[in-house]
Amino acid sequence: MKMTRPAFERHDLSSARRVLTVGDIHGCFDRLERQLDELGFDPDQDVLVLLGDLVDRGPHSDQALEWCDRAGVRRVLGNHEQIVDYAVNRGAKGFHHRAGGIWFEQIVEPEKRRNWAETLMDAPVAMEITTPGGRRVGFVHADVPTNCWTQLEKVLTSPDHPEHDDTWAHCMWERHRIDRIEHLRDNPESARPVPQPIRGIDHVFFGHTIVHQALTHQNCSFIDTGAFRGGDLTIVDVDAWLDRLDQQADQAEMAA
């Protein structure tokens, strides 16, 4: 499917009360609704950024289109949105079935299936926002292929760039950064290179790879805690999260 929406978007959300973000939903919209209620989420004052993978595997994927249009909600693409597109436009029904797409078989009419694919794919691959606290924060589903946010924007906003398609796919599918981080945490004496911060952005949030609990390395946080497997969705108040990281860094510096 050829995307008509820009692959990179920037939004100034500094006037919001809070910016929240959440890892992969995978059809667990009942849990999302409950946790947002507990947090006092108000779409007139707050913004929620979904990190992709709204559908498949969980019990309520059929609510995804409603959430695409909800007030106060923004999102980036995940690989499962693309898998739905593959099922509709490339005949990859078996692939989708194996990826948790059994629910999609209940949509019999071809036109409705096409509508699902088009709506789910109507989102950017990467998003940058300015938070109420004045921070520049990025949101990408899976990974960033370079350590430079400015380069990512340049490539994604240039459809004819020779690296555009590979970068687009990397942002939705790859796990290089988190795999290296987890390897180094388990093997601190490893000779493998340490993932570096992403330059040109204050912080970046990712989903895609399930972690036992949300973790941060350098200026990257991974917050998919596997809701469809029975865990909680991890919903982060972005500025509060970054304030806490700053405090921890200050304390570590003082203790050194």
TrEMBL record:
Keyword flag Cell membrane: no
Statement: the UniProt record of this protein carries the keyword Cytoplasm = no
Which processes are annotated in GO (biological process)? RNA decapping
* GO molecular function terms listed in the Swiss-Prot or TrEMBL record: bis(5'-nucleosyl)-tetraphosphatase (symmetrical) activity; phosphatase activity
Q: Which residues form the Calcineurin-like phosphoesterase domain?
A: 18-210
Which InterPro entries did the record assign? Ap4A_hydrolase, Calcineurin-like_PHP, Metallo-depent_PP-like
Q: Which Gene3D superfamilies match?
A: 3.60.21.10
Query: From which residue to which does the signal peptide run?
Result: none
Sorted alphabetically, which Pfam families does this protein's record hold?
Answer: Metallophos
Keywords for the protein's UniProt record, in alphabetical order: Plasmid
Q: Which GO terms describe its cellular component?
A: cytoplasm
* Protein name stated in the entry: Calcineurin-like phosphoesterase domain-containing protein
Q: Which organism is it from?
A: Erythrobacter aureus
